[in-house]
From TrEMBL:
Residues 46-139 form the Reverse transcriptase domain. It comes from the Eukaryota. It holds the Pfam family RVT_1. This is Reverse transcriptase domain-containing protein.
């Protein structure tokens, strides 16, 4: 039971850190407090049900989060990662929903490898600061 409480506490703490970071980023992009209040109401204690063949399931509550695949979820994630492009001056980033790429080109292989090592270290620092991780299964 202690582990379960600890896990829940960690999730809530991590959630508050993410909300704080996201709120700061939204403010930096010109969003005002009334939108931030709407956002908090939108992501907390959401209710949903499944409808199939004319029948509806019982209503369930999602404590935290947005619907997977929702337009708002994708937009919020893009706003959250938008400043990743500032983590490196040499990498070229393409950001799309949850699928982002970083590229670099140079005619000398050794130079390219050395630069990528340094620049990806900067990107990893940005990811760590923003509480994000890379899915290694998707990049190998």
């Amino acid at each position: 039971m202690q582990k379960k409480l600890t896990d829940r506490k960690f999730r809530n703490t991590n959630y508050m850190v993410l909300i704080t970071i996201h709120s700061m980023k939204l403010c930096n992009n010109g969003f005002r407090s009334n939108f931030l209040e709407f956002l908090m109401n939108f992501v907390e204690n959401r209710k949903y049900f499944v409808s199939a063949n004319g029948s509806n399931s019982h209503t369930k509550t999602v404590n935290i989060g947005v619907s997977q695949g929702s337009s708002l979820g994708s937009l919020l994630f893009l706003l959250y990662i938008n400043d990743m492009i500032n983590s490196s001056d040499l990498l070229k980033f393409s950001l799309f929903a949850d699928d982002s790429t970083a590229t670099y080109s140079n005619s000398n292989l050794n130079t390219t490898l050395n630069i990528l090592k340094v620049e990806f270290s900067k990107v990893l620092d940005w990811l760590t600061a923003n509480k994000l991780i890379i899915n290694l299964k998707k990049i190998l």
